[in-house]
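We close this part of the discussion by returning to an individual protein. In the encoding step, the backbone of a single protein was reduced to a row of integers, each denoting a local shape. The sequence in question and its structure tokens are set out directly beneath this paragraph.
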Amino acid sequence: MASLNQDPVVVVLQLSGANDYLNSIIPYTNPLYRDNRPAVGVPEDQVLPIDDALAFHPNMALMKKFYDEGKLAIIHGIGYEDSPRSHFRSMDIWHTCEPDTVGTEGWVGRVIRDLDAKGENVLKGINFGQGLPRAMALRGVPVTSVSDLASYGVMTGVPSIAEQERTKVLERFARMYAPAIGSGPVMDYLSQTGNDVLKGADIIKIVPQKYASTVQYDDTPIAKNLRNIAQVYLADLGTQMFYTAHGSFDTHYSQVPAFNKLWTDVSSAVESFFADLQEHGAGDNLIMMLFTEFGRRVHDNGSGTDHGAGGVAFVLGNRVKGGMYGEYPSLRAEDLQRGDLAPNHDFRGFYSTVIEKWLGLDSVSVVGGTFEQYDFV
């Protein structure tokens, strides 16, 4: 049994590329779903019913298991007004909570700032994956970004290789964000906090050596990242904000096989992650948030689906109050926004619920206002 610090922990899993809401939580008895999805609609005899109106996609069976256990919350109709239907701009809005201007501060960065005001723990927030998410960027806030935990300590133990890895991470960050906010602000941020990206190497490199588990994760990128998160979480290094991403969910064409694999991989990785924590008698102080930048167009394009607006988010964990929150947006033509589901729950309310009710922090300074909260934690 693990004896861990019981500070609240959040794992953010970003479903990059715009996950299809309509095919994730399917209004399978609504004739408008069938009318609008002649090419990519899921047959009614394949869905996994929640009730007589909505169902999980068949490749989300492991997610439905969490739902049936009361550990998964579904957040309907999430988004914001006037979706730009642009991946970069929309993700930027989700990352900074700034729908009207191009923000420079990440919401997770603000949370880390408030959790560790003196910046004493460079592992308070860790990203697993390539680069550094905009959500974690905030001047003066130390963060760590790891592409491969198994080789991380080895590489950073060799100065020349460590510098190469650090340079790669920071160059990737600069390439991603300079077009949006200019190279000046980007380089200014990097000069302040860039050295912290790999500062946790000496601490984190011992994590794989301390970890043992009988859980067999799949050989997929998301499974690897969640296994890495499990290792660091179980090492009890004081990390409270974990971040990772998987995709691409940008299914403009050949959606059916691509979407099936995406959710097979995500569902299996998430199930293995929580099984790993359970094996170690841990996890009661951890929740996982899954979000995407927007949903997809109601009517398919003959092979896939194009960019939309209203979407779906998920929260799961042992202490999550499972169920459905909010209202599924109407599929009636007169209720759509430019052919898309109309968002009815501001994503900043989703964040606020986690920030206030789970992390115990003030959310206004993080999300920039007061928004409707739910009771899933």
